[in-house]
Amino acid sequence: MKCPLDWIADDYDVFCLTLAKGLSGRELLLRLSCEEADMFIPEDEESALQFVWEGMENYDTWGAARAGEVGEWAFSLELASTWGSISERLEAASTGTDVISCSAAGPLCYVEYWQNGTCVMRCDMSAPESRAEEGGIDPDRFVGEMQRVGFFAEHACSHRRLGLSLLHEITGVSLGEAQTMLGLTARIPAIHHGPEGLPRGTFGPVPEGAVTVSQVGARRGPRKLNIRPDTHAAIRSTTSPVPHPQARSRTAS
User: Fold this and answer.
1) Please, which residues have CB within 8 angstroms of residue 7's CB and are 6 or more apart in sequence?
2) The whole model's pTM is what?
3) Distance (Å, rounded) from C-alpha 33 to C-alpha 28?
4) Burial class of residue 191 (count of CB atoms within 10 Å of its CB; 0-12, 13-18, 19+)
5) Least enclosed by CB within 10 Å: which of 4, 19, 123, 139?
6) Three-state secondary structure call for residue 57
7) 54 pairs with which residues across the strands?
8) Residue 104 belongs to domain spanning
9) Which residues, other chains included, contact 14 with Cβ-Cβ below 8 Å and sequence gap of 6+?
10) 187 CB contacts (<8 Å, ≥6 apart)?
11) In 3-state terms, what secondary structure has residue 16?
12) Taking the alpha carbons of 7, 10, 12, 15 in that order, is the dihedral positive or negative?
């Protein structure tokens, strides 16, 4: 069964969708470390796409996030970064409420559910049967929802689609691209550029040799930020082994 969030997985190689119950989109962005001064409403689709592209160019320091509300849930959507999935930020975002996030970077995809500052369930989509080893306090809380959307099936759909389907099954949130295009937009700081700071003994946010969206963008698209008809296609076609925050934290440990 098709999920109303499938377009994100189908069109974007790198993304992060974070939902928070009972907050506004602005409140969620602030909890994810965005600054009020960096928030704005794009004038049109062209300027909205321009901002995403600029975030790709500056991936090492920030990404572009779009926010708003759907029913009782606020959303933050990144279409070329995964900075909203950093654990310290999900902890802050979930204070006094529930937060669920699905993030993907190349072959990596994670779903996390946080409640009042505590990780309830974290699932590496390549090994959902091993979720008890991922640190959540109640890894089986959503087994029923997982089974309903096709987890553990012999011919399951892609990890990315499954992750987004689980978000939809748990929250009921449906989100279309047109609905997000002109939403509240902000710069979301890259890892170690937010309140989590730099890890001890390091001198920068990106491990040596890591390939980032900005580097791939330089190869695939124009360096100038003048918008072109193919800009949206360039954003969608960016397929890079972008370091995922969860992968980085495991390497560090």
Assistant:
1) 176, 177
2) 0.80
3) 9
4) buried
5) 4
6) helix
7) none
8) 6-244
9) 78, 79, 80, 81, 82, 104, 105, 106, 213, 238, 240, 242
10) 34, 35, 38, 55, 62, 63, 64, 65
11) strand
12) positive
CA distance 242 to 228: 24
Rounded CA gap, 207 and 198, in Å?
12
Does some domain include residue 74?
yes
Query: Does residue 253 lie in a domain region?
Result: no
Q: Rounded to 5 degrees, what angle do the CA atoms 134, 204, 236 make?
A: 65
The pLDDT tens digits along the chain (253 residues) read 689 999 999 989 899 999 999 999 999 999 999 999 999 999 999 999 999 999 998 988 999 999 999 999 999 999 999 999 999 999 999 999 999 999 998 888 999 999 999 999 999 988 899 999 998 999 999 999 999 998 877 666 788 999 999 999 999 999 999 999 999 999 999 988 988 876 554 444 343 333 333 333 322 222 222 333 343 444 445 544 344 555 544 444 4
In a domain, 172, yes or no: yes
